[in-house]
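Internal ticket #5521
Category: modeling
Description: The requester needs a full-assembly model to guide mutagenesis choices. All entity lines are attached below as received. Residue total reported by intake: 800.
Assigned to: D.W.
Attached entities:
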Amino acid sequence: MPSPDSGTAAVVRPAAISAQGWGWRHAGRTAPAIHALDLDIRPGERVLLLGPSGAGKSTLLHALAGVLGEEGDDADETGSLLVDGVSPKARRGRAGLMQQDPETQVVLSRLGDDVAFGAENLCVARDEIWNRVHEALDDVGLRNSASGNFALDHPTSALSGGQKQRLALAGILAMRPGLILLDEPTANLDPAGVLEVRDAVGRCLDKTGATLVVVEHRVSVWKDLVDRIVVLQPGSSSATAGSTPAVLLDGNPDTVLAQARDMLTAAGVWVPGYVPITRPRSGTAGGSGTTSGGELLLATHELAVSRERARRRGFKTVPPLPVQAGLDAEVFAGQALTITGPNGAGKSTFALTLAGLLAPVSGTVTAAVGLSDGAGADPFKWKAQQLISRIGTVFQEPEHQFVTGRVLDELMFGPKHLGHGEDRVDELLERLRLRHLVDANPYTLSGGEKRRLSVATVLAAHPRVLVLDEPTFGQDANTWAELASFLSELLDDGTSVVSVTHDQEFSSVLGGREMRLVPAFQDGTRQEAGAA
Amino acid sequence: MKETLTLRGNNALLTRANPLAKFVSVFLITLVLALSIDLVSASTALLGELALFPLAGLTLRLLWQRGWPLIIAAALGGWSTAILSADSGKILLDVGIWSISEGSLQLGLGFMLRGLAIALPAILLMSCTDPTDLADALAQKAGLPHRFVLGTLAALRLVGLMAEEWQTIGMARRARGVGSHGSPLQRFKAMLGQSFGLLVQAIRRASRLAVTMEARGFGGGRRTWARESTYSRLDVWVLAGGLVIAAAAVLAAQWAGTWHFVWLKQPN
């Protein structure tokens, strides 16, 4: 019988996982999310879990964390899944889980409290809790470290995405779990944040020896940290016997990657050293920065931007503090403009202002006559319907832009309100592989499908300028390649593409010019609001 | 909005008092003022509250910035009471159907001061109490169920996020051609759609947050607290302060002969 967590600084005992014929069907679904899983993970092993979407990776992690809900409310469990020989639900705190969205990994509003939260729930004694909080914050580099040194009462809302994920890791470590589960922990982070989190995880594993199971599409990030890769495949949906086993491949990283390279790239996994093939830009050889040819569509002059609106202080109106000021940019037809820079630099805010969605704090955004077409020079003053046929904006989170309950309605929405362009919908359905989904509800699509749909819906209105906010974030390699190829085609056809991105491969496919923003006002508390 | 709600940088005396003591104090004052409409009790309480401002780290400027909607509402309430209530005494102003008499002016003034005197302690309480400390006190001292208290506290954090999300969804929908232009009906429909979008996001976020909390062992019957919510001698003073203000308001009104329970008919 394992001893329960005592108050003393017990050494972490790594957990063992054993699955035998395990399967799970979510309530309200006909097909199981995962089926016939046989898997043994020894204490202290570090496992990277790969597989196409729909293979049940997240379901497995949730089950191991003991948060999968109860069997019986119309959900079905088959076989057995055990952590240290008992059901994961039976021992709270044995496993710690980190999910993808940094905002929902933070529970409380003060840094120290948030780390303490898990330990409190496990009834750890007060003095021991604070010992653990200090230690965990040191371990993840949020205290006494070059990458962060925060007071215990530092507001958690003022942390960046990467810092929030490291905070979540600290909260997990303070529970002293024998099993650490990471569900796409870096999918929403910029490259610097990805490395921050990966390195913190590595340090903590070296120190505690805990077992690790991580789900992630970008293999190169985790490859050197894990000692085993398990590739899952979607189970057969029929309930008949003799179905395919859930584990397709299992072994040391290099062997598995060599064996399954083709299968993994076909499934959209980012295998190290693999850059998906994309359609090259025609003519300008990748757009080497020439500004000739394209017609000027949009220009900013001395532009200052902020997400906040002017605030009322009693009777006074105070203009917001801009995140960026003095921005001059020009957008040409058939040319790409890439906006880069670290988190908090105001990239999204600038793009949204350029797209006529935010009012400038000062300075101007001016649409050339060729673009405005009689609607006036200031895009922010355009009516919504005037805007969409001139400048289309694709947001980072596709769900924010869904306005109907059906994929086809979603695509017809713009053309229907404009009174023209319905003929293009058919082409977009074909081009972005959405035809088989026309009757589906947009909210039920996979991540890649949602991204393709959100691009298609905006393009259905025929804008001459397309603005995209981190279009490749969290996308698998297949969606990535489709998107990049499609945009390069649009560019060749004379559309202008403005994208906010950290993705250098992506911007090199589009070519054109790069505009790099650096944080302009560093007082430590201001964060770019859109940097999820 | 956000920075006006944080306590960072506020080191005033009352921030160190136990939130529960402050809460009871405020409740006492509010209760007394809810019992009577009269000028004397309201202005006595108001004076007492104003004297407490420095102790809570509040200045008149900050008060105006945080509480201007309440202050304007109180003023408007008083004004409309003055012009609409039954006249008594000398008529001071008469414009058609509206008139202000000595009696109605007094009533209006009393109404306004009472509104202020009730609103101020709430602003005072909020400006020197951290929600986290309040939750600690409610769960540990008042014995409220910790699952409820901590669940609410975590949800409160999401409310701030939702305000940002509302703005983003509004822009995202404008980018789809759903504008805030058009007839009131169209605008109402657009607003409804945006609310639905926000609701979907709120539910997604909330369920992910619930998973995070559950994965950190939340939901068990027992838990320990990293920070103990304690009473100190200061809390005795806070309670005494609340009692004194409440009592002074009643006594002053009694002495002046203006005390009047709200449920009794107005004297005339």
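Resolution: model delivered.
Comment from assignee: Confidence is low (pLDDT under 50) at residues 1-5 of chain B.
Ticket closed.
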